[in-house]
């Protein structure tokens, strides 16, 4: 039941974020997160989705410590459930966060943690034929 109530809030947060209303988006994400955290533990992936969205929003807002907290919790929750593309996306977000903070060792750690099967690169202009061993951070 809680997930059903929180899903529209997540969607509203995404729309507000796209419109540039970061404060409004943050409020909707936090409301959705509160509802989801009150629900059963077996819905960790749903909680992780909201944490991931909130963490990425915080990066845009320059709230890097808050972003780190949410993204680290999201990746932990996702890794409990399963190792997949979504987990790789959250690790990539942590990589971007640490690049922004200037901590390139941690950025490399998070970006390569799922190697070789579960990695994601948010640099869309990268030539995908480049081998992993040739990527320099």
UniProtKB/TrEMBL annotation:
Lineage of source species: Eukaryota, Fungi, Dikarya, Ascomycota, Pezizomycotina
TPR repeat segments: 48-81
Keyword hit for Oxidoreductase: no
PROSITE patterns: TPR (PS50005)
Highest taxon above the source species: Eukaryota
A Pfam entry, by short name: TPR_12
Keyword annotations from UniProtKB, A to Z: TPR repeat
Gene3D superfamilies: Tetratricopeptide repeat domain
Protein name: MalT-like TPR region domain-containing protein
Coiled-coil stretches: none
């Amino acid at each position: 039941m809680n997930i059903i109530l929180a899903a529209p809030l997540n969607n509203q947060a995404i729309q507000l974020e796209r419109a540039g209303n970061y404060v409004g988006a943050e409020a909707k994400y936090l409301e959705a997160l509160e509802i989801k955290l009150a629900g059963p533990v077996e819905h960790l992936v749903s909680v992780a989705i909201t944490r991931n969205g909130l963490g990425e929003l915080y990066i845009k807002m320059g709230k890097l410590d808050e972003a780190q907290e949410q993204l680290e919790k999201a990746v932990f929750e996702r890794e409990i459930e399963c190792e997949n593309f979504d987990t790789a996306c959250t690790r990539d977000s942590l990589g971007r966060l640490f690049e922004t903070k200037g901590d390139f060792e941690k950025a490399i750690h998070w970006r390569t943690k799922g190697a070789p099967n579960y990695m994601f690169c948010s640099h869309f202009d990268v030539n995908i034929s480049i081998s992993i061993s040739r990527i320099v951070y």
